[in-house]
Amino acid sequence: MASLELVALIVRDYDPAIRFFVDVLQFDLVEDTPSLTNDGRSKRWVVVRPPGAQTGILLARADGAHQAAAVGQQFAGRVGLFLRVEDFDASYRRMTEAGVRFVSEPRMEPYGKLAVFLDLEGNRWDLLGPNPKEKS
Question: Which of 6, 46, 54, 69 is deepest in the core (most CB within 10 A)?
Fold first, then answer.
């Protein structure tokens, strides 16, 4: 058996990214540990994860111009991350009130209600409601 444990997301700085994921998206801060780059410079190992989820996001601070250029463009302008929630309407309302920028209005699709939003760096995400094909 295998599982996907982490996905790296390049961010400008750790603390604003932590605040966005923890305060706005209500993820858990799983780890925030001082670390070192391969050449001895300081960095942090920061992992956030939706409550109850197995896969987390490693918030990786951009290191150098090449990585900084990828901030907000990690998925080349496409939706690259998909956040499924139990209560779409409540999540959408809470996120909107918190200042999250939605770039599409909520709509129904065969796989559930969705709206596209931008994270703090400009990466596109789908906010997804329950999948109607999966009965609880």
Answer: 46
